[in-house]
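Sample entry (310 residues):
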Amino acid sequence: MCHGAAPDGTARDATNVDFTELADVSEIRELLEPLATRRAATRANARILCLVLDKVPSVSGHITEHVELLKAVAPGDADQGGRAGSAPRHELRRDHPDGALGARPVSGAESESETRGLCAMAIEVRPATQFGDVKAVVGPKRPDANVCWCLSYRIPSKQNLELRGPERGELVRQLTGQDPPPGVLAYDGGEVVGWAAVHPRADTSFARNRKIPHVDDLDVWSVWCIRVRPGHRGRGISHQLLKGAVDFARSYGAPAIEGYPVDNQGHHVDLTMAYVGTRKLFEEAGFIMVSGTDSVLNGFPRVLMRLDLQ
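Predicted structure, serialized as tokens:
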């Protein structure tokens, strides 16, 4: 792994360094340099760089020269990204040969947000057609538990109240077999690490929601739940999931996509309520606020964010 010189002259392992405590950029670059020059790069090396971007975002502009390393850590991903990025829209649907959504090769001239996105270049977003993987993210530990299963907005309120225990999971199993499936999943290698619920608004409770307005008559899609599994947070996966949801909706011909995040203005959002996302997350994905709502979550107003896909 990456080593630099500690104050006592001993080697310092970058995997065990708290980058937030380093004095300046030069110290960080000293630790990162072996990663940039090492030919036998690994995914773990990339995650070290991701740690820097997540914990010390002000230095992200200083390590854009390490883009080639990030491309090298998952050599198959760049090629796959080239195929997915150049594919016609219909090929990004559930029948896409690789199941990937919206991957793309990266260039050397990245903005801070794009450079941060490289942290998740090993993350692949696919249509949620595997029930077991959906269950791993949103399902309960006990099959008889009455958890949401991300159905609260997906089905009519009456049906949502009537479904109990295993019935909820069984409905999700059926939804994963439909076209389109109920959302997208994020994978780190073979491990599922996140979920985003995305579907045509007309087939969700948002079609009748009295607190969230319709700004026009377009047959828009809605993305309303973004979840990253514990142990995988802080790596920008929520950004990848939102981008994957957008690509998924676009591949089905959606004219626009909406989200209804909280406008928390930088304040902490309780983890149990963070699934709707924040206004900042959606703005960084290109969405714009088109309306306020009468919905409030965790004490914060929700706003209607829209992205035109035409």
